[in-house]
From TrEMBL:
Stated name of the protein: L-ascorbate oxidase
Keyword tRNA-binding: no
Keyword GTP-binding among UniProt keywords: no
Recorded GO MF terms: copper ion binding; oxidoreductase activity
Top-rank lineage group of the source organism: Eukaryota
Matching InterPro entries: Cu-oxidase-like_N, Cu-oxidase_2nd, Cu-oxidase_C, Cu-oxidase_fam, Cupredoxin
Pfam families: Cu-oxidase, Cu-oxidase_2, Cu-oxidase_3
Organism of this sequence: Canna indica (Indian-shot)
Amino acid sequence: MSKAVLVFTALVLSSLLGLSGVGAEDPYLFFEWNVSYGTISPLGVPMRAILINGQFPGPNINCSSNNNIVINVFNNLEEPFLFSWNGIQQRKNSWQDGTAGTNCPIQPGKNYTYHYQVKDQIGSFYYFPSLGMHKAVGGYGGLRINSRLLIPVPFDPPADDYTVLIGDWYNKDHKVLSRTLDMGRSIGQPAGVIINGKSGKDAAGNNDAPMFVMEAGKVYRYRICNTGMKVSVNFRIQRHLMKLVEMDGSHTMQNIYDSIDVHVAQCYSFLVTADQAPGDYYLVASSRFLRKELTATAIVRYAGSSTPPSSTLPKAPAGWAWSFNQWRSFRWNLTASAARPNPQGSYHYGSINITRTIKLVSTTANVDGKTRYAFNGVSHVDTETPLKLVEYYGINEQFFKYNIMADEPPAGKPPVTVSTNVISIEFRTFVEIIFENPEKNVQSYHLNGYSFFAVG
Ligand SMILES: *[C@@H]1O[C@H](CO)[C@@H](O)[C@H](O)[C@H]1NC(C)=O
Ligand SMILES: *[C@@H]1O[C@H](CO)[C@@H](O)[C@H](O)[C@H]1NC(C)=O
Ligand SMILES: *[C@@H]1O[C@H](CO)[C@@H](O)[C@H](O)[C@H]1NC(C)=O
Ligand SMILES: *[C@@H]1O[C@H](CO)[C@@H](O)[C@H](O)[C@H]1NC(C)=O
Ligand SMILES: *[C@@H]1O[C@H](CO)[C@@H](O)[C@H](O)[C@H]1NC(C)=O
């Protein structure tokens, strides 16, 4: 279901554990963020949301590979808070990744300064709050890593670069959602879908002002992330085709799509050519795999035009198979940007020998009245002191045992164990991880702080 309620920590031993500093020679970007509650009405219903410097979505982080990012976060909520930088590979700073397994939460009324260096995952990401159900009420924003000069990107610079954060929205306070799970119930269906914090219409049904502008004939990059809790969202632009160029920090083969399914936490970059008659066009985001389709719109306007958009929205695809088949069409462009050796030191990705296969089967169970999600029969609980700190100080024996979960699911249906669940993996192991979800809800998995490419 949602990665906010399902925590799985894979710790790569040895290489990631050093607390070395960041390179002094690379440029620094400084941010000061004030995290506070505020009232917003994305679906017309006023509710308490988490804002950053008064904004929802939060500010975009626009950086280039090797930049040092310094973000001083002031927590003005009445509860602990943490930001996660969603998979940004922090070779030297993995203990800063902002999950309860790596960082101490920022206490209410206190501040904490994140300090990390982005490397060569050139592409599109987003940051989000990682504790409780905070993510369901905001606190997220876009994060882009540009290629530093000298490292070519496999397309010409676009005329502009737009961040489009889409996802489900519940119209419920995050504490209400937490209590629902703690009473053994599901958070239920979302109230709607939003695009950059908006549904696209006001209470009278009139369109919001255009969100983006394109000049006829030019090419634009759209970075689309599903920042929601659990619902897959199909994204499309009226009368425009989308050329896929990047997903989650990897450049891809440049296939053309008329719509794309974006599952929770995924990000894609598309190039869109403004090749239609000047006018306004709808961007459409609609829920997938729900009984009732929920739709949000936004408008992209051709500069200087005043032709309203056609009220006929392009339809979403139907069924599961479409989504699987689309996924199978995605291919990594392994020659783009820079050749990188695989973990065994070779440049031939296709010939890496898999040294370990971990099969993770997810289940949901009611344990002591609470809804718990489990892998291979184990539902993770955080240690009071973050795992990375416990390991750094060599006191892990007092807190948890490694590898209590097997690489294979248990036979039969034994009861779910609630425990700190840490897999240790040796340096340079090339691991194949297979996820299996026998249940009725879509599951999404957050492989935190490492670079992955889904292969099937
Ligand atoms: C942060 O925002 C809150 C609520 O808007 C405000 O009361 C507080 O003064 C702000 N703090 C800083 C450091 O800007
Ligand atoms: C983002 O950074 C790139 C590279 O430094 C720069 O060219 C671009 O103008 C920046 N975009 C925004 C919106 O700040
Ligand atoms: C908190 O903010 C102050 C003022 O900007 C700064 O000097 C201090 O280093 C910050 N503390 C932490 C723990 O980041
Ligand atoms: C893959 O990347 C290389 C190197 O940048 C580029 O020349 C090539 O056109 C790209 N291939 C596709 C299909 O995009
Ligand atoms: C993979 O295993 C085969 C057979 O054992 C071996 O010949 C080959 O060198 C290995 N490849 C790598 C990259 O280690």
